[in-house]
Write a structure and sequence with these properties.
Number of strands: 0
Strand content: under 5%
Helix content: 55-70%
Largest sheet: none
Structural class: mainly alpha
Order of helices and strands: HHHHHH
Radius of gyration: 31 Å
Distance between the termini: 72 Å
Length: 130
């Protein structure tokens, strides 16, 4: 909040000053102390930039997760299916576990063969002919 008689430049300066200067608490029914030392007795030690820093950290931690979720579909392999198959393998009895591991290996091997064929697309074949 700034007084109505402040120009835009004064209002911007006041807002910026509030973000970098000390903060203190004065109850509504008491007058504002005139001397700076009297004001600093009720200094609030909470730093205003903590909220901004925490939001930036939140974004920095969440961004790789969002990027992974968006780009995982372009790899051509269903990672969630492999994880589910591995989870099933850990829960099955030992005699059936080997069969589940073979299924996982077959799934990954089939993806690698498909990727190898996909890798050699029309442009690669044209370059090899030239």
């Amino acid at each position: 909040w700034v007084p109505a008689q402040f120009a835009d430049s004064h209002a911007a300066y006041t807002e910026n000053l509030c973000w970098v200067s000390h903060m203190y608490y004065v109850p509504m029914d008491e007058p504002i102390p005139e001397h700076k030392s009297d004001r600093m007795v009720r200094d609030i030690s909470f730093y205003r930039w903590v909220v901004a820093i925490l939001l930036i950290q939140c974004l920095l931690f969440k961004f790789p997760n969002m990027l992974w979720k968006e780009l995982r579909g372009y790899s051509g392999i269903n990672v969630q299916k492999i994880v589910n198959m591995a989870e099933e393998a850990t829960m099955t009895p030992i005699d059936e576990r080997q069969e589940k591991v073979v299924d996982i290996a077959h799934f990954i091997d089939r993806w690698l063969k498909t990727y190898r064929i996909y890798k050699y697309n029309v442009f690669i074949r044209m370059r090899e002919k030239v």
